[in-house]
């Protein structure tokens, strides 16, 4: 899909028509899917929208915040399933994690990643970069792999509760709060993962239906092409017989071949008698 799809949240009061009308201001839409949790739509009213051009995504993100029905909607770039993990797709953060950052030159790292977004804080030894905008982190993940001085550097999002924050390593957090937060995140992850799977199944069915329709069209075109090709060959043969007959009008063999060609050239019509065909052919040649 590339960088042409967005995830939009906080849409519990927004209709599909209203959302489409609002988003069309930023470019041509090729797909829009609105999802709701009918039992509990507090957390799970979201949509995926795919634009025809990646420029529409850039314009949409640059125009934040977005208000529909006087309420701000949440928007982020949708990371592809094939190249991004589930936490990377779900977590929103402005913190980028660099693997083995000290294996690379500090200034080379800073200069490279500073070109990809506005850096607020750079932790060289910890391998962390804080950007001013979470969208910069998503853009960096979308453009993986990254190379510093010819060597690939692995980058990902800093995921809370999965990667320990070096800044709070010496603090003693409230264990009960951490457990509650972790439980809440797991519930959200599980539900959103289910939504992703349902969305994927819907799209797979649509793709399979389109493939089947394409195969039927191919077969129809093949049949039509074959019929036209056969007709063209028969007409060429008939023209050849007519030319020979003009050159040698007394040849009974050519007369017989032409009659046979006429009969085979119209398989779905009622065949005429040989005598009438010869008469018609004689009139045509004269």
Automatic annotation (TrEMBL):
Residues 4-80 form the RRM domain. Residues 200-227 form a coiled coil. SMART domains: RRM (SM00360). Keywords: Coiled coil, Repeat, RNA-binding. Transmembrane segments: none annotated. One of its GO terms (molecular function) is mRNA binding. One of its GO terms (biological process) is regulation of translation. InterPro entries: Nucleotide-bd_a/b_plait_sf, RBD_domain_sf, RRM_dom. It holds the Pfam family RRM_1. PANTHER family: RNA-BINDING (RRM_RBD_RNP MOTIFS) FAMILY PROTEIN, RNA-BINDING PROTEIN MUSASHI HOMOLOG RBP6. This is RRM domain-containing protein.
